[in-house]
Amino acid sequence: ERRTPRRATAQPSPASTPRPPSMCAALCRAHVVAAAAPLTRRRQVASRGKAPALVSAKRTTRSLVMARSALRNPEEVTSKAPTPSAISDTATVVLFDFDGTLGDTETCAMEVAFWELAPYFPNVLAEDLTPQRMKEFIRLNAGKAFELMFDRVESDRAAVGLPPIEEVRSRFQEDFDIIQVVNSNRAALGLQPFEMVREDHASILDKARDETLVALTALAKPNDGVIKALNFLKISGFKYAVSTTSPKPRVPVCIETARLTDFFPDEKVHSGFSDFDPPKYKPAPDVYVKAAAEEEVPVDNCIAVEDSVSGVGSAANAKIGLIVGYVGGSHIPYDRREEQAKALMKGGKSIDRRGADIVITDMTDLPTVANFFLDLKLDCGDDEQCLARPYDFSALGPSFVDKIYTPEICGAMPEAEDVNPR
Fold this sequence. Notes:
The protein is 41% helix and 7% strand. It is of the alpha/beta class. The protein folds into 2 domains: 75-104 and 221-410, Rossmann fold (3-Layer(aba) Sandwich), CATH 3.40.50; 106-219, no CATH class. Helix 1 (21-30) packs antiparallel against helix 3 (57-72) and helix 10 packs parallel to helix 12 (250-257). Keywords: Carbohydrate metabolism, Magnesium, Metal-binding.
């Protein structure tokens, strides 16, 4: 009778022993970019008169460096990823706007502004201060400096013959019923009643600045997907910083509350309000030029991430290499995302009418776009034709998590309304 020979049971050798979970996870993280953009992917540049090119050898070296780093220190891969300057000739920095882009702070800050100014709106009764009116105020003013909103209310009051705000404030002449509505909404923001803090500030501008800081200290949080995107960018070797109009210490405090300090220490925060005298508000290019200089990277090697037309204008006026619009913040209604995306791409506040090169709705799509731009810079070198806009993102389509917008997808956009004007 034929017997089937028994198979010998091999004892596991040290080489075949499964890696600890932390090392496996580190390897997966280190190779995430290579998986998203395999070496067989060819860049679609034929339409520009160039033959398709393989992803560069420098890019291959980049992935190997990341993998080796993960093998040596799997538990530290997210904190000690190699910098672009260590693995390529082209350093790339991602420069973020803060309010409404990194931080889900726009709505909170605008609610504070609304209730600071509500007692002084001309020809407004207590029953007019509805949630819908506040939403419309936020839509029209999100991202604007409070000083600009204050000036608008002052001009509206002057147009109907009402005295200046500070005169009304100093004489305690605010409407009692309006103050009751204001106080109930101030409480929801963690602010004290109107009467208790009236004399704590020399002006309503100082009061608004301090109370915005109080509210955001308690309520600031990152936008969905931000921390995941930052970790992927760090693993990929990108540096990043904040380029904002908002003042210090407000932004650093929000960063701390949102638990983003490990990504953005104080020296990585650049403010158009606080770092210049007089302040340089977007769409002026100054804050982007400063951030690029501090990172020792040419502006055309930088990526800007913005949620507002004035922010896109600032990046365009600074000649930033890639401008990424973002419409996933809570201050942009879901049904108006496409409208805002079109406004960002229109370039209404850019000197040369340049708009966003691409608009994302999910922040976790940013690493895909950033790596595309780095590949393009590495492959094209100084070839201006290869780097000419519009960029062709078509090969990345399957890699995106959520909907994206490009000028090619949206077509002509001459009549787009800015949902988030600044």
